[in-house]
Design a protein that fits this description.
Elements lengths: L1 H20 L24 E4 L2 E5 L15 E5 L2 E4 L5 H20 L2 E3 L5 E3 L35 E7 L1 H5 L8 E7 L6 H4 L7 H6 L16 H16 L17 H9 L61 E7 L29 E5 L16 E4 L7 E2 L3 E3 L9
Parallel strand pairs: 9-12
Antiparallel strand pairs: 1-4, 2-3, 4-13, 5-6, 7-8, 9-10, 10-11
């Protein structure tokens, strides 16, 4: 009888111990135990730029630029950046996603997510030869030579974003949610529009659509379209997350100081991303795609743009941070912004409305392009363009803030 009693007591004690190990109610401050695991995040096609300090601004004795490019010591939090500019084929993935989402909407291909919200069911196949999709194509007088061409002006991406600065200022929540609608197809006519008395029609017809240019940087994309791409890229990745897996931080355009910090590649006070003072190496070879002399575009090996990974990367592994195409950044352009922006993650941003004066719509572009002289390739050179403007020499790349102290911790 005693043995039975001891056995029952032993089993009861063991159950109590096991129960105490599997519950959060231990009586001690342990934090919430059942939290998602986070083992770091290394986005495909991106390189890690570590936290650090750098001197931004003009790196040579250019007295006329000291007002807009005043030297300043800043600190930047670690982040990821695309190793190349976004290419035509990468941007085409965005265009096709928007195109297919319109087709699924026409067919009513919807399902529900775990919260009961309606979402597109991507399992259904699309046959664009079907007359069900005639409204997506040019018809009648708009159709050219009997071809079945998509009405690309109607490729519109709709999304929402939160105005965190307004939230910090105490604005009501219903005013924080911003709705955006953006036509996202690149402006292929920019090659003709940018250069008068110049024959560039072949580039207009082929640059975005022909496989020969798949790995070249996308151009003809304005600042607002680049922002829409970043939102879609975040949505695309998070939509594939497993259950209870935390979402990633948002893809976005790099801030101006992030861009310059990354372009310097760990070198301080040098005018070019490769750490040198000249656009040529010791053998006299040009190190970037730009306009080295009057009327001499092809001396560097490229006539217009070149492949996004042409030329050697800088010491962070970033390609074409000088030349090829200029790149949109997050920041609004203000001539003396460096004098009052913070020295920690410096940023000067302004969300311009459509009816705002044009001066409020200026956005910083960096890096110089295939049609620029060497001055615009300097890591410290600032330039701007209007946010709703498309150019044949402006592209972009994305950035993501690194969550944590250092990638070495994972």
């Amino acid at each position: 009888m005693k043995r039975i009693t001891y056995s029952i007591l032993g089993i009861f004690t063991l159950m109590m111990i096991m129960s105490s190990c599997s519950t959060q109610e231990t009586g001690h401050l342990t934090g919430v135990i059942e939290r998602p695991n986070w083992s770091g995040f290394n986005p495909y096609g991106m390189v890690y730029v570590p936290s650090g300090n750098a001197h931004i601004g003009q790196s040579d004795q250019d007295m006329f630029s000291t007002y807009t490019q005043r030297p300043k010591s800043i600190s930047v939090q670690g982040f990821f950046m695309d190793d190349t500019e976004i290419t035509n084929n990468e941007y085409r993935q965005f265009v096709y996603w928007v195109r297919d989402s319109i087709a699924h909407t026409i067919m009513g291909d919807f399902t529900e997510d775990e919260y009961g919200n309606e979402k597109i069911d991507w399992e259904y196949e699309i046959d664009y030869s079907s007359e069900d999709f005639d409204e997506m194509f040019y018809e009648g007088d708009l159709a050219f030579d009997g071809q079945r061409d998509f009405e690309v002006e109607e490729f519109i991406y709709k999304y929402q974003w939160l105005d965190w600065k307004a939230a910090a200022a105490g604005a009501k929540r219903n005013t924080l949610i911003q709705d955006e609608e953006e036509a996202i197809y690149p402006d292929t006519l920019c090659f003709i529009r940018d250069f008068s008395y110049s024959y560039n029609e072949p580039m207009t017809r082929n640059y975005f659509s022909h496989p020969a240019f798949d790995d070249y940087p996308v151009v003809g994309v304005n600042w607002k379209q680049a922002k829409a791409f970043c939102h879609w890229r975040t949505h695309l990745l998070n939509s594939l997350n497993l259950e209870n897996e935390p979402n990633t931080e948002n893809f976005r355009l790099p801030t101006e100081v992030e861009w310059e910090y990354a372009a310097r590649g760990g070198h301080d006070l040098t005018p070019y991303p490769w750490g040198g003072y000249y656009p040529r190496n010791a053998k006299g070879c040009l190190l970037a795609n730009f306009k080295p002399g009057r009327g001499n575009y092809p001396e560097d090996g490229g006539f217009y743009t070149v492949k996004a990974d042409a030329y050697f990367p800088n010491d962070y592994g970033l390609y074409c941070m000088a030349g090829n195409v200029s790149e949109w950044t997050e920041d609004a352009f203000y001539e003396n912004a460096y004098t009052y922006t913070h020295d920690m993650n410096s940023n000067y941003s302004y969300t311009a409305a459509d009816d705002d004066p044009d001066v409020y719509k200026r956005k910083v572009i960096r890096g110089g392009s295939w049609k620029d002289i060497a001055y615009y390739l300097h890591t410290g050179t600032r330039h701007w363009e209007f946010q709703d403007t498309t150019k044949s020499y402006i592209g972009f790349r994305c950035a993501v803030t690194f969550l944590g102290r250092s990638i070495d911790d994972f």
